[in-house]
Structures are given as C-alpha cells and as structure tokens.
C-alpha cells in the first residue's frame, strides 16, 4: 500500500550517499518496464530504455547487493538478452573477466539503448535475491534482478522510472512511492537507482495490508502474502492481531529517539515455496518465512527475532553503515570487517527488542543466549580463526550452516555478537552505576534527528569513540581481545556479569524442543557430539573431540540402530540417559557409502542441554535489559501474531 509521494527534501549532509541525485541537474531517467504477468510461470520480462551517447558503452548487472554481504547477483538467471538502438539490433559481448559486464557500441545518432531480457524466477539456487522468490500465487520482486545500469560518475544516483505489471487481480505492497496506477499496472515515481534497488515489491493473489500506526505522524505497515486464503486467514488483516508488532515499532523508535525513513513497510511472505530469509532496507524489510508462521504459534516463536532484527537494520546497516560496505556502485567488492557491528549488534538487539515488545518471553530470551553460548564455546573453528576473520571472509560463509561448521566456523559474528554486545551492555551499566546502557549508545550513534533515508558511513574508531564518550573504558582493548584475536573460549563474561551462568540440564528446554520440531532434527551436540535428522537419521556435523568423534563417527553417516534396535529419537535419548547409570557404551549401527559399521560410543554423562542458571550473588541485569522503553498500554495476551 504505497502512496504517492513528492520529491524528497534536500537535507543531505556531507558524506551521505543517498538521494543526492535530486540535488543535482536532473538527467533523463532510465525507463524500466517489468512485466510480471508470467510470474506464475516463473518468468519476469524486463525492458529498459537507457539514455546513452554514441560510442562504446558498458552496462552492468548488479553483483554486490547491500545487506547480502556476498557477490551473489543472479546474473546466470538472465536469459534472452537483447540490445537495440533506434529499432536496430546491436551486437554485444560479455566481458571476458567480469561476468556481470556487457559491452556494446552505441551507433551514431542514437540517444539511448533499448535492452530486453527475461529473468528465470525458477532457478533460485542461491541465497537472498538469488534465492527462490515466486510461486504460482505470489512474487517477491527485487529490482536488482531485472535491470542493467551504466557505471557513470555516480551510478547510485541515476534516476530510474519503473513500471510493474502484475497478474490480474494481484495486490501488492512496497515502500517505493507510486506516481499512479491502473489495475494491475503500477507506475512508480522517478527515484535514484539506490532507492529503487532498496525498495522491493511484494505481490500476490492472497495478500493484505494492515496500517500498524494509524493516526501517528509516521506510517508503518505490514503486508502479508501467502499461497492460499486458508493460510492467510491464520492472522486476519485486523490491527488487533498485531499488538506486539505495534509495540515493536514503538520500542525501536523509543530506543533510537529518531528514525531515518518516511514510512516503514514489513513485507512478509509466508510460503513454503520461496527461499526463507530476511533482507533489510531503509524503509522496508523483505521477510520470508514458512507458511506455518501464519497458523502455528511455535513457528512464530522460533522466528520471533526476524522482524525486530530486520527493522533494527534500518538504523544499523542502512543509515549508519561501515565504510567498507558503503560502496559507490553494485560492482565494487564490499569489505565486511565491521559485520560484528552491523550484524552482531543487530543480532543482540533483535533478541532484546523481540522480548521488550512481547514477541518472545524472558525465558526464550535467556535460552537463545544459552544455546549460542554453548554452540560458540564448543566451536572448533575458534581455535584457529578470529571472529574478525569470519567477518572478512563472510562472502565465503553464506549460506550457513553446513557440514564442517564446527571446524570451519560460520557466520559467527551474529551469535557471538550477541555475547560481545551483551558484555558491552553490562560493562556500561556497571561503569555508570546503572545510569547508562548500550541503549544510550544506540541513541547517540544511530538516532539524531528524523530524516529521509540517507547513508552515514562509519569506521571502527567511530564506534570506540562513541563508547568512550558514554562510559570511558579500554574499549579498544575490549574489542581487540574478543573480535580481533583468536580466543579459545567463547566470551561468556556478559552472561556472567548480568548475574547468570551457562549450565546444563538433562531435559530438552522449551525453545530447543520447538526448534527440533520445526527442523525435524534431534540435538545431542553436547552429549554424544552431533545432531541428526529425525526422519532420515542423517548425522550432521560431528563435534571434534566429542565422544562420537573419538569413536570414529563422521558427518554424513546414516544412523540405523541404537544398541541393536532400529533407531528413533526417543530410543537414542533413552540410551544416552541409561548409559549414565552403567559402564556399557552406546552402540550405534550406521551405514556410510554402502558399508555398515557399528561404533561403541563410550559416553556416560547423560543428556546435556544448555540453559542459563541464576547467580544470586549478582544483580539480574538481564531483567533490566529486557524492560520495555516505550510507554504504552499492555496488549491483550495470546494474540496470534505473538507466540
Ligand atoms: Zn541482519
């Protein structure tokens, strides 16, 4: 439900990248016409009319997308590519080195080049905008999929005028301002390329829009698309069903004290037939979840962090962005070292804000910290690489996780970011005797005055300086030790300084039980040393040095029997529990590469699952951290969108 909006005010600051085209001479816009009427047949048809002067011209397909942290532009899904000028076809060559660049010669007398191609929605083999993004009933359109652009002096500022034709009867949602529309044919306002690419469109036969903050100065919306009316009816299009999301909007704004969007749109796709992820934008987030999100409380609990995380990025990642990620176009490689701030702080506050807004309870908040602390403390990869090395190499580590995650490490800057920023939060609270917290860092670093979207880059030293201004300490040394050096143990100081400690229980904790149900797996990571698929018995990553590893079990084996009986999750857990009371090993019959083999796992420690245990000698800072900031009435309990 985008509305027509006029031009944006010229309130740019030095060093900002966003929208600066509008302050300059207004060149002829690129016309982009996307025909999505074949989206149910997994095809998009695109046409571009690109102003150009006679002579050599190189056009680029976007390669590095903001927020994706990898060179994943789906150029291999571009087919039927044709160029012409004044109605005559032009020959073209792909650059022999850069697969995303196309060279052609604009003939004398021509003032523009026409480009047409089809985009294969079905391919979807990659992650993010290269992942599956359509079904027969809905479409998630990322504009970078369907355009080429010239790499001139200021590519992000090139004005684009886009139109979009949707299948008959489909509805849509986007933060991109409309200039006008007829049924199924949308005409958008002329915007800089950066704004266009930052403003995806969700469309579908079964889609509704809810205004979350009617009557307030800044509008916020959620658009929900599903594959059928039954799923969509799971949470009806009624604002009363979104009390915790409304609280989230208020909590995020109370935290920062100002925002850098004109409107904010959650674009929620609930489908089992698209790739599942969240991708942040200045004025919207592309949030893709399982269909059961609409009908099943457990799915919503497992995904409680998603919307808080993606919205937090509007400030941390979009408005304030590490200089290495604020590139001048979509071809230049990004330098991702500061992802421990960009993603790490967002991961921490995704959990905090989900709890402050009631999307999850305090128990789930503590359990996510316990699960992450246990995972990272056992991470074999931390023996050889620093957390900073996982950020620098982030482009190699998506999509997570996979075989070998323990030895290799993964995108640990998310979950380890939780622990490091929790420790920073606790330190500020202690240093200032409770007068200040990490919330004050958020307000000073990301808040300021309300504004339209813009990018203000930062460096590592800026983060350290802002923290020192708030609570003088050796912040340089703090991050050096935790982020830039190899640390054999996970940083557990935050949990401990908040009055809790990592402990173990022999009963599967509630959130882990939910995750196991959804992921269809069984976790024995901290007892035998692996997780496995509940249905197929496939053994996942085996923890180096664990009892299973010492017995010779490797990832990829299939479990067949436990102590001589056909295996089941219940039987396996019972065998682990029973082995704690005797000296007999747990025997596991497996099949691997067509060979059957029995392993005797000599383990007698019983079932072990991580939990946080209260340390009554210290004050409970976790309870303080999750206290809501925004003053507002408590929403009704048990609203469907919350649990
Ligand atoms: Zn993120």
Structure explained in plain terms:
This protein has 20 helices and 31 strands. With 643 residues, it is α+β, with helices and mostly antiparallel strands. Among the domains are: 324-503, Orthogonal Bundle (Neutral Protease, domain 2); 510-601, Pdz3 Domain (Roll). The strands form eight sheets. Strands 1, 2, 4, 5, 8, 11, 13, 14 and 15 form a nine-stranded mixed β-sheet that branches. It has a five-stranded mixed β-sheet with strand order 17-18-19-21-20. The protein has a four-stranded antiparallel β-sheet with strand order 6-7-3-10, with no helix packed on it. The protein is globular. The chain starts with 29 loop residues before the first strand and ends in an 18-residue tail after the last helix. Bound molecules: zinc ion (ZN). The site of zinc ion (ZN) has 4 residues, from loops. Residues 309, 313, 343, 346 line the site of zinc ion.
